[in-house]
Amino acid sequence: MRIRIINRNSHGTFNLTKLLYMVIHPNSPILFKNGSKMKNRFMLAPLTNQQSHDNGQLSDDEFEWLTMRAKGGFGLVMTCASHVQEVGKGFKGQLGIFSDDLMHGHKRLTTQIKAYDSLAVIQLHHAGMRSPIEVIKQKAVCPSNSEKHNARALTLEEVYKLRDDFISAAVRAQKCGYDGVEVHGAHGYILTQFLSSKINKRQDKYGGSLENRARIIFEILHGIRAKCGPSFLVGIRLSPERFGMKLSEIKTISQQLIDSGNIDFLDLSLWDCFKTPEEQPSSGLSLLEHVLQLNFKNVKLTVAGNIRTGNDVQTILNAGVDFVTIGRSGILHYNFPEKVIADPNFEPIEKPVSRAYLKSQGLSETFIEYMTRWEGFVEK
Question: Does residue 77 lie in a domain region?
Fold first, then answer.
């Protein structure tokens, strides 16, 4: 049951604006339509951290970071964005899934995550025009030429290859023991670049109308379902704003993806769940309320964006979201789910935090250094 709520009050907490008929406990399990069972309502967000090896191999640091979150009670542990082509690498030290040579590390990772009764899911990614030339040592690729990003347009054959490499990466992930995959269609990476009418200027069947711009996403998801079967967990991440995205178009695409039967969950990165939408600021609805207008049928919904405390978690679940995606609080507390389940009013440690503290939470020196980019997060 999905129940409309809410807005932040002046104290930064949430108030419900209508009576709740059902309270979802964060420790209650979820059964996905593919048959996968998630023990609670907490998913670790796919977080960039730059701590794997430059050839895409899993590092001990990345292994420690992710398995520690499984140990800390996350019902679903999502890897960082993992590139499906070498040319799609988005950052130094990225975990890759583009080659069979990388499978040993993934098998080690999935075995340990699942040992803690957590679902192991890998996020499939390609940075497109956001691949830095100093990282990939060649010109980045994009649906269309982008002088600003020094990126060249993909040929039609390369679009087909991109689609097939996403599908092959999912097959590879399944062989490595992952319970499922999430296709990264958000945050300005290559699938967002296809979706964006501002970026995608193609004149073929992958450009122009919304149907054409979204075509590659539907083909990838259809291919994954066909190759990996009905029992493999499949999700997609989308963002309804920024990077040329329009809320109305993302709502249309989201409903079509739900109706297609090829996804088990929809992951919407909202940046701030309760902000006023940019496209329809006078609608009287928050961004989350717009999302909740969709007919989810048997597809599960998770959202990310300013979910920091135990009270935030409960409010999001009571709004009708199936499970929460946790980023910052999962960095600050490896066992954030356990903390919230034990204390519904739990609030994370105040920031900034020391390097020693982050080290105690399973972050490597490389990850900690990356976190210094987040203003006010790490003590100077």
Answer: yes
Q: How far apart are the first and last CA of the chain?
A: 46
Q: Count Cβ atoms below 10 Å from residue 291 Cβ, excluding itself.
A: 26
User: Cα torsion for 179, 185, 190, 195, to the nearest 10°?
Assistant: 150
- CA torsion 152-158-161-166 (nearest 10°) is 30
- Measured distance CA(234)–CA(315) in Å, rounded: 26
pLDDT band at residue 22 under the 50/70/90 scheme? low
Rounded to an integer, the average pLDDT of 333-353 is 98
Which three-class secondary structure state does DSSP give residue 35? Answer: coil
Residue found under tokens 């739900």: 258
Angle ∠(372,374,379) on CA atoms, nearest 5: 50
For the chain, percent of residues with pLDDT exceeding 70: 94
CB 131 within 8 A of CB 140: yes
> What is the set of active-site residues?
189
Structural element, H or E, at residue 236: strand 233-238
DSSP letter for each residue of 274-292: TSPPSS-TTSS--HHHHHT
Q: Is 73 helix (H, G, I), strand (E, B) or coil?
A: coil
Question: Is 376 within the bounds of a domain?
Answer: no
- The answer, as to whether pTM is greater than 0.85, is yes
C-alpha span between 64 and 67 (Å, rounded): 5
Does a structural domain hold residue 361? no
Note whether residue 62 is domain-resident: yes
Task: Write out pLDDT tens, residues 35-47.
Answer: 999 999 999 999 9
Give the domain CATH number at 195: 3.20.20.70
- Number of domains within the chain: 1
Q: Is the confidence at residue 249, as pLDDT, over 80?
A: yes
Asked if pLDDT for residue 9 goes beyond 70, the answer is: no
pLDDT in tens, 289-307: 999 999 999 999 999 999 9
Parent domain of 230: 7-348
Give the CA angle between residues 95, 96, 98 to the nearest 5°.
175
Q: 6 with 287: CB under 8 angstroms?
A: no
Amino acid, res. 372: T
